Amino acid sequence: MGTRRQRRILGSVLLALLPVLLVALLLTPVVRVPLGRSLETLGLDLLASDAGDLRLVLANPPEGLVPGHPVYQAGVDRGLWPVAWVVAVEPEAVRIRFAPGEAVGGTRWRLVALDAPTGLGDAWQLAVPPEVAADLGPQLSARLERLLSEAILPEIRARLPSFLARIDPRKDPRAREVLGAVGAAVVERVRPYVNDLGDAVARDLKDHFDLLERLGLLWGMVRGDARGLAKKLLPIAEQSAQTWWLEHRDEVLKAAGEAVMDEAPRWQGWLTKEVWVAAREELAEPLLDGKREQIEAAADDAIRVVLQAVVEAPGGGFRTRFAAVLRSRLLEKDEPLLLLEAVE
After folding, report:
1. What DSSP element (H or E) covers 330?
2. Residues 6+ apart with CB under 8 A from 175
C-alpha cells in the first residue's frame, strides 16, 4: 500500500510540473524565437492581403515548386533560414511573400531556382556558385601540379627502372608469353593486308615502268647498283604504300584491335596480377612510404581550400547552397532551392 501511495503522489507531482516545464521550455530563446517567427508567419499568411507580395520572373519553374515553398537570401550568412515563401506559381513567374521582419524596401530582386542534386556532379554545382568554382579550379590545379612536380613524379622516375625490369619480356617469362601471343595474333590477323600491300606496290611499279625501263632496272641489279635502284624505285613504292594505307587504314586498325581483344583474357590477367603486383611493390608502396607526409599535407591544404569556399566563405549564399545539398542528400528532400539575389 505504501509503495502504491508513493507512486500516486509522484505521478501527481509530475503531472503538475509538466505544464510548468512546457512553459519554461517555450520561454527559452532557442524555442521562443523560431516558434514566435513561425506563428507570426502563419498569422500573416492567414490574415494579410497580397498587397505586399512580390512577383518575380522565373522561366520554367522547376517541378515540385508549390505554394509554401521557402525562399532563401543569397549573400547573407544565415544558413537555411528562409526570408520568404512562395504564395503562387505561374507559368513564367513566382509570387512570394516576405517573412515578418525582413527588410525588403528599395531593393530589386531576382529569383534563382536550383534543382535538387541527383549525384556528386549536381551536388558540387549546387553547393558552389560558378564564379567560385572558376576560381577554385585553378587553385586546386596549381596545388596538384606542385605536388606532382615536387614529390610524386621525381619519385616515380627514380623507381621506374626497377618496375620495368619486373615486366621486361626479355627477362620475365610471363611477360614474354603474353606479349608474344598478342603480337602473333595481330600478325596473323593483318597478314592478308600485308600481302595486299605488296601486290599493290608491285602493280604500281609495273604500271610505272615500261619494258625498256624494267630491263634497265634489271641491268642495275646485275651490276649491284643499289643506290641507283633505290633512287628510282623508292619514290614509287612510297607513294603506292601511302595511297594504299589511306584506303585500307581503318580495316587494318580494326583487324589489329580485334586480334588484341581476342587475347583479352590473357593480357588482362597479366595486367591485374603480375603488372599490378610489380606496380604496387616497386612504385605505389615506396612512394607512399617516402612521401606520405608531403602528400597528406597537400591533401589537407586542398580540403581546407574547398571547405573555405563551400562552407566557411563569407556571404551566406555559399552556406545556404551547401546546407541545401546536405538537406537533399541526407534527408532525401528532392526539392528545388530558391535563392533570392539582390540586383545591383
Report:
1. helix 316-330
2. 167, 168, 169, 270, 274
If we measure between CA atoms, which residue out of 320, 313, 306 comes closest to residue 74? Answer: 320
Q: Exposed/middle/buried for 67, CB within 10 Å: 0-12, 13-18, 19+?
A: middle
Task: Return the percentage of the chain with pLDDT > 90, whole number.
Answer: 17
Mean pLDDT, range 94-114, rounded to an integer: 77
User: By the 8 A CB rule, do 68 and 99 touch?
Assistant: no
pLDDT in tens, 260-275: 999 999 999 999 999 9
Q: What's the rounded Cα separation, in Å, for the pair 114 and 313?
A: 20
How far is it, in rounded angstroms, from Cα 100 to Cα 43? Answer: 10
Q: Which three cell numbers stand for residue 314?
A: 563569407
Sheet holding 70-73, edge to edge: 54-57, 93-98, 84-89, 70-73, 337-342, 109-114
Q: b or e along 273-293 (b: 16 or more beta carbons within 10 Å of the residue's beta carbon)?
A: ebbeebeeebbeebbeeebee
Please tell me the pTM assigned to this model: 0.51
Do the beta carbons of residue 290 and residue 284 sit within 8 Å? no
* Separation between Cα atoms, residue 166 and residue 50, nearest integer Å: 78
- Exposure on the CB side of residue 279, measured as CA atoms within 13 A: 7
